Amino acid sequence: MSLSAKKKQAIFDYYSENGFHHSTEQIVKELKICHKTFFNRYGTKSQSIEIAWEYWQNLCKEKWSRILENCNHCVEELLMILYHMYKTREFDTHYYELTRDSRKYLDTGSYFYSIVYSILEKGKKCFHVKENLNTDAYTPFVLNNMFLIDFEKDKRRDTLKFILNAALTERGMELFLETPFA
């Protein structure tokens, strides 16, 4: 099913504002379309949620790609991505909760998984991440911590240090300690 960006954005915006726990009757009323149009356009309600989630994931990818362009090293990239994943709790609450509750972030095809995995692999090449780190096992560990732990603001650095300690080399940890936190 090939949808225009405008139609994807319409369902994305609806779920952003209202969450995912509404009937199709409520959705079509708000979108000002009939049931037949909804089902022809989005398939089932579950499929419409998946379309909206993929749209959100692509928005994150675009935004975070721009942010990563300004990073100085892979440790800073990793910290920026983890910070922005954490901040989705505040700004994209419904999508964050869907991602957390469904564990979609653990899907190796998800942007969240692939970006953390690729940064860790890149870090091995520049000797900031331990060469013998099992990235396949460590990526889900990092993501579970980011999506499931509620960090206290004044303990954020210590918590991240604990999470990343197993992965970072001595130089990687130095870079971690030099990187300012929000």
Structure, explained:
This protein is 71% helix and 0% strand. With 182 residues, it is an all-alpha fold. It has 2 domains: 1-52, Arc Repressor Mutant, subunit A, CATH 1.10.10; 71-178, no CATH class. Helix 7 (111-125) packs across helix 8. It is elongated. 23% of the residues are buried. The model has no long low-confidence stretch (mean pLDDT 90).
Task: Name the structural class.
Answer: mainly alpha
User: Quick one: biggest sheet?
Assistant: none
Q: Any idea how many domains?
A: 2
Low-confidence region ranges = none
Beta strand %: under 5%
Strand and helix map with partners:
Blueprint: H1 5-18, H2 24-31, H3 35-42, H4 45-68, H5 74-91, H6 93-102, H7 111-125, H8 135-148, H9 156-165, H10 170-178
Helix pairs in contact: 1-4, 5-6, 5-7, 7-8
